[in-house]
Design brief:
The protein is mostly beta strands. It has no helices and eleven strands. It is globular, with a radius of gyration of 13 Å. The mean pLDDT is about 95.
């Protein structure tokens, strides 16, 4: 059973950058697609981006394309979400998720394991 723990959230100002980390334990995630999702108050959880098992392919939501970058280090069982040019509308709880299949699917129903989330708040 894979456990995921996010870290790195916080309060930042618009235009700032932030890096979220996702640490996996209880098993290797090297062949799993990893996704980042977010959920703002009173909104549904939405796909932010994902990376395939080998790290060769990434996908992003249009709302973050060009500003967010996902990377992974399979040796460390870690996944990262680099966020830049943050906007107030990026405020949300950010979740890391693992899909036992290697290809990125931008649908939360595809993911088997979830972290508890980390809060990101962007002030204007």
């Amino acid at each position: 059973q894979v456990q995921l723990v996010e870290s790195g959230g916080g309060l930042v100002q618009a235009g700032d950058s932030l890096r979220l980390s996702c640490a996996a334990s209880g098993g290797t995630i090297s062949t799993y697609a990893m996704g980042w999702f977010r959920q703002a108050p009173a909104k549904e959880r939405e796909f932010v981006g994902g990376i395939n098992g080998s790290g060769s392919t990434t996908k992003y939501a249009d709302s973050v394309k060009g500003r967010f970058t996902i990377a992974r280090d399979n040796r460390k069982n870690m996944v990262y979400l680099h966020m830049s040019s943050l906007k107030p509308e990026d405020t949300a709880v950010y979740y890391c998720a693992a899909d036992r299949l290697p290809s990125v699917i931008p649908d939360l129903r595809a993911y088997d394991y979830w972290g508890h989330g980390t809060q990101v708040t962007v002030s204007s």
